[in-house]
């Protein structure tokens, strides 16, 4: 029985994902000077910096991307605004809608973040055949779907 428990613990998918997630959080994608951001704020800022290069971004986009509640997203964005990383601008067509815009302070971090992401991806995928990596990504996306109320993710 003891050996079965040990084997189950070693191959527990959630535990392995948690360990990987913890490692990623510790290393992060932000430059060494983190400017007092929480791990979640770092992820959100990275998302904002890269998504705003392609499209307008709003709070609901943050909620959907990170699968968080409106109140959680609102709190994160308020702190990021207070710390000078973003500002929110009213949209002419709907005053209730606020576009999220990175500040110059945040913009200065974009290239460093990109380099850090590329280095982390290289470490994460080192020695893994392309086919195995594709299977891994497909399985992880399916796991997210299994736990999500939504049917698909990108």
From TrEMBL:
Key words of the record: DNA-binding, Transcription, Transcription regulation
Limits of the HTH marR-type domain: 10-145
Statement: the UniProt record of this protein carries the keyword Transcription: yes
Family matches, as InterPro entries: HTH_MarR-typ, WH-like_DNA-bd_sf, WH_DNA-bd_sf
Pfam families xrefs: MarR_2
Gene3D superfamilies: Winged helix-like DNA-binding domain superfamily/Winged helix DNA-binding domain
PROSITE patterns, per the entry: HTH_MARR_2
Molecular function in Gene Ontology: DNA binding; DNA-binding transcription factor activity
Protein name: MarR family transcriptional regulator
Organism: Sellimonas catena
